[in-house]
Design goal:
This protein is 21% helix and 23% strand. The chain is of the alpha+beta class and 318 residues long.
């Protein structure tokens, strides 16, 4: 019983899972002196040619450029491994021996430490003066936020024309997305809002009721919109472009959806569905693999009008 216990609880040397004709060898490379290659398990019936192919995946040296040596665990050369047709067992390797790879390619990418010594790689360096000139850098953002914070505390005045250059590129009536959240909206106001702070501001009417007001901020009416649809943000939070209302996409035909890469798919009972948006002014797109005749647009309309459908269906919003 004691011998059985010792066998079960004894240290596993890996011999139980090792074939009788396999052996564990180490690998070293002439150019990759800093790299520590894991020992690899090789079959003694493997040819030298097959061994070179395997070593190619570990070191990146093409088989035709490999010259192999078998060395003992102390690094002493035991012999050259010549002849691609010879079997590994021909060279009588022992457990823990080293396969040394001499890279014969004079243009090897690993030569002279190019794959290990990062100091050899020329790096792009930017001076502080050049970095300060960038408007979209982290430093510029921090500087801008610090100036706004000081202005709120009354420490230093803020430029009354703050972000004017960005605001001049935006016009009332433009479609846009507002950061964060990618909220789609229509620009309703471009100008200053002293009630909010110095500088230029953009008033938007969101497609969804995700705003904070109806265009009135601190008693000042900047534009007209429904309650909960209005917002006033800094110009750097607004991206103007082709951002149609998501409601408009419900009216697209199946051919138009295919052309947009938003193809309708057949749906059926008992299948998982994914919904993109579901609200007063959001498009509900649904995809479900199965059988049936409903398209994504038709299913979206059903989702918007039938809350029970949503309750009985596994839905994932994104």
């Amino acid at each position: 019983m004691a011998e059985l216990r010792q066998y079960v609880t004894g240290q596993d040397g890996g011999m139980q899972n090792r074939g009788a004709s396999t052996i564990l060898l180490h690998v070293e490379h002439s150019n990759l002196t800093r790299s520590a290659f894991p020992e690899i398990r090789l079959d003694l019936h493997m040819t030298v040619g097959a061994l070179k192919e395997k070593l190619y995946t570990h070191t990146g040296t093409q088989p035709v450029n490999q010259r192999l040596q078998l060395r003992d665990s102390a690094g002493a050369v035991k012999g050259a491994m010549d002849g691609d047709d010879r079997k590994l067992g021909y060279f009588s390797p022992e457990e823990g021996d080293i396969i040394y790879i001499q890279d014969m390619d004079p243009f090897s990418a690993s030569a002279k430490g190019w794959l290990e010594d990062t100091s050899l790689v020329e790096k792009y360096e930017m001076t502080d003066e050049d970095y300060d000139k960038r408007d979209n850098s982290v430093r510029a953002f921090k500087r801008q936020q610090a100036a706004l914070k000081k202005a709120e505390q009354g420490d230093t005045p803020v430029d009354p024309e703050l972000m004017k250059d960005l605001a001049e590129k935006i016009e009332a009536g433009n479609r846009c997305e507002v950061f964060p959240g990618g909220r789609r909206a229509t620009v309703r106001y471009v100008g200053k809002a002293e009630a909010l702070g110095p500088g230029w501001w953009i008033g938007v009417e969101y497609d969804d009721p995700v705003g904070k007001h109806d265009g009135t901020v601190k008693g000042v009416k900047f534009f007209e919109c429904g309650a909960g649809f209005g917002g006033v943000v800094r110009p750097d939070k607004v991206t103007v472009g082709d951002f149609p209302s998501l409601d408009d996409e419900l009216a697209l035909s199946d051919d138009e959806l295919w052309a947009r890469g938003d193809a309708p798919m057949a749906v059926g009972p008992g299948r998982r569905v994914s919904v993109r948006g579901c609200g007063r002014k959001r498009r509900a797109d649904a995809w479900r693999e199965g059988v049936g005749g409903a398209t994504s647009a038709g299913l979206a309309a059903e989702l918007l009008s039938n809350s029970a459908f949503l309750q009985d269906t596994p839905v994932f919003f994104f």
